[in-house]
Amino acid sequence: MKKILRHRRHPIAHFLVLGIALLAIGFGYTLLSPSNAAIATNARSQAVEEGRQIFLKGCSSCHGLNAEGSTQVPTLLGVGAASVDFQVGTGRMPLANNGVQAMRKKPVYNAEETAALAAYVASLSPGPAIPNAAQLNYERDGNIAEGGQLFRTNCAMCHNYAGQGGALTQGKYAPSLMGVEVKKMYEAMLTGPQSMPVFGDRAISPQQKLSMIKFLKGIDAEKGQGGFSLGKVGPVTEGLVGWVLGLGLLIGVSVWLGAKSK
Amino acid sequence: MTTGKRIGGNVANFVDERTGAGRALKKNLGKVFPDHWSFMLGEVAMYSFVILLLSGTFLTFFFVPSQEEIIYKGNYAPLSGLSMSQAYASTVDMSFDVRGGMLMRQIHHWSALIFLAAMVVHMMRVFFTGAYRKPRELNWVLGVGLLTLGIVEGFLGYSLPDDLLSGTGIRIAEAIIQAIPLIGTYVAFFLFGGGFPGTIFISRIYTIHVLLVPGIILALITAHVLLVWFQKHTQYPGPGRTEKNVVGFPLLPVYMAKAGGFFFIVFGITTFLGAVASINPIWLYGPYNPSQISAGSQPDWYMGWLDGLVRMAPNWETHAFGHTVSWNILIPGLIVPGIMFTGLALWPFIESWVTGDKREHHLLERPRNAPTRTAVGAMALTFTMVTLINGGNDLLATHFGLSINQIMWFSRIGVFVLPPIAYFVTKRICLGLQHKDRDTVLHGRESGRLVMLPSGEFIEVHEPIDQYARYSLTNHEQPAVVELQLEDAHGVARPGSVKEKIRARLSRGMYGEQVQKPTEKDLLELEDGHH
Lengths: 262, 531
Description:
B: Cytochrome Bc1 Complex, Chain C, two-stranded antiparallel sheet, 63% helix
């Protein structure tokens, strides 16, 4: 110790001490400071806070200051991040007007804001989470034939046999599923927006959901088997084409043949 | 004489000496038919039926009429490994794996739609021109029979592939059968061999679709055409055309060439549709499963009005003595169609009873000159259109942003309100056109030439029409109202039966209001020049 102390006035001594002290603080900080997870938590709570602010401005006038809802408006407690991501991400929420049904439109909030809102609502009460990309690999995990079968059993009665959408009562409707983002379809099944029932993972397993999505994407991509599809809505358009184009042409030819004799 | 001619002559002679065909052909090939485009609508229907027979025969080579469940192992991946009936699997195979199968299926289905549509349009032509009047009432009834059978045949064909859509249709047909009071349930059990769907209805429907109904249709078409042959074709009125002649062209060569060519045109247009437009994509509907249903399940258009009637029916049911009478299906599914088709078949007889006209008619009438008939036709078409529109209510709702309930209420009210409106409007239009005809005869047609008189007055010059045009506008009959006879032949008062009173009232409704066509006297007075 004396040996070390003897050098205490050495010209580089105080640099050394300073260095040691800095290192100690550095390591100490590393040891004592919040862990990575805690940083993330911090960031999340920041997102939650950000989401809360957006919520208070954009949503609370209907859904209530604590997302508790009212007799007219559903509560958001327990709907989960997936529901927010679906409703806000497809532009259905915030509601443009008080129609029979929220319509798909251009989203009001961007992806970050939507994520913040989702984080806030999820922080209030547990609910279905937003599925990640690994959960949505329908090409790998889905079975198209099984998906078709499940779709016809569970979905076609509202969405039509080829996912073209269909009418419900009082002006409500099941929207077309063509061109809809995979994640959104998955979330819709998970959360049951508006008139749609919830298809929880116990009723329809995640793999089965992906099968249905694969079936729908298959229809979306199917190149007109047998010619123009006429909208894939069944015999109504076929009848229209039969009368207008088919019989129309034939009557035209009849008139032509009849006129030639004069 | 060349060798070819000699051989041909010998063959013809051989046949003629044994069958007497020469005389019959000589007589019949020169037969004259009047010419008008609207006379070709029935031809379209007939040629479509021939196309149906040809394409249908092709389909029977590959279709398996069995409900036996198999696992699909064909080329269409979205159905791979699913359990389905042989009927469905064979139709999918026919579409994707048989060369030309898809085209043939689509030709067959488009042709069916056109067959029915052409029959309806043909029937409209016959109705609105009064072609069904004596002696052709029976041929009208045959036509109604053909239309009915055509609808049945079409529905059976639509049901054969055993896909989700057709199975739904069969399910509704079963419901309509069950709605027949007392015997409905038993009839349904008998037809389906037990509960729905059972395992035999496809094979039964198949036999009826490919054998029984086409056979009857073919026989009826033959009778229909033979009657036209023997009764002669009606013609539009005009100079030189009377009840006793037929003005037109001979069968050979004019109509042989025309009709032959027209057949290929019909075939060509049908094939064109089959080639470019998808119809009945059963691979998308999926195999039938009674636990499944698709939104927007509709029948083909010729059943659409029936579906529309069922869709607008209120849910009335009566429960009595442990039985249910389903008025909600019985009325729209059986009673209303029964009234529609009975009325259609009886119309010629009703009309001739009301008018008391028992003479033969070979000259057609212009729709405007029979305003009541035209108005009744417009009324019937309006009724059918409202029901047809309601048959597609779900698609109208989604595609035009409407509420399905609003459309239903529109139809429920419209089906009662709109036909009478159509009746009155049509009748007024017809009478208006009669006024115009009268005007044209008396004052000539508007030339569009304005002349300023020295006094400064402007007049439009009317050009007199020639005598042929004048004849065409004035040759029609204007029947008198059948008045109630309140005195008998001896001048003794009689009350008149209820039947006579009804008839007198209907007759007044039919002929009571008409625009008097110009007489020779009217014309002479005008030509004397007070105008």
